[in-house]
Write a structure and sequence with these properties.
With 174 residues, this protein is α+β, with helices and mostly antiparallel strands. The protein has one domain. Helices cover 40% and strands 30% of the residues. It is built from 6 helices and 5 strands. A 5-stranded mixed β-sheet has the order 1-5-4-3-2, with helices on both faces. It is elongated, with a radius of gyration of 17 Å.
């Protein structure tokens, strides 16, 4: 797990140094991770805040949240309120995190490095002490890259959310 993160960091640094506009995707999509989506009756949604300077440049948390909500609703995935989420067995929560760093360049254009994570967390119980429940990541996908335009980064976020929805539907329409 940690080796994969270091590898992504090195790739992002290489992309920046080579002045490339590209992305690297990682989909943690094992049988066990897909299986963790089976039988979910709804999920709580949390879209992380973006840096104020990124929002001022045109990509907002509200845009991302609206897209994710619409995608989930169209797919028939119930979005839980906080009250429903706390009562739901396993407390499933989908987190969409977008980390964007504006890299100053010598030219007249902006350059961004970014990391996007779409992760589902659920409560799991310790075998040695079943009274202890901890939130664990049961499914995840993400990408890392460098871009000149925020709308391209937004398209990557949307693509990763689509991957979650497609996997959820696959596991729950058997």
């Amino acid at each position: 797990m940690y080796n994969r993160r270091y590898c992504f960091i090195l790739i992002a640094m290489a992309l920046f140094l080579l002045d490339l506009s590209t992305s690297v995707y990682v989909i943690a999509d094992s049988d066990l991770e897909r299986e963790s989506l089976y039988g979910l009756k709804g999920i709580y949604l949390e879209v992380a805040l973006l840096k104020p300077e990124i929002e001022q440049e045109g990509l907002t948390r509200q845009q991302l949240e609206t897209y994710v909500k619409q995608k989930l609703q169209v797919a028939g995935i119930k979005i839980l309120t906080e009250k429903e989420w706390v009562k739901m067995k396993g407390s499933p929560a989908l987190y969409v995190n977008v980390h964007i760093i504006n890299i100053p360049k010598c030219y007249d254009y902006k350059y961004y490095t970014y990391r996007v994570d779409v992760e589902l967390y659920q409560d799991a119980f310790l075998l040695r002490n079943p009274t202890i429940a901890l939130p664990v990541r049961s499914w995840a996908t993400g990408c890392l890259g460098a871009e000149y335009r925020l709308d391209v980064i937004q398209a990557h976020v949307e693509s990763l959310v689509d991957e979650f929805v497609n996997t959820y539907l696959y596991m729950n329409t058997k």
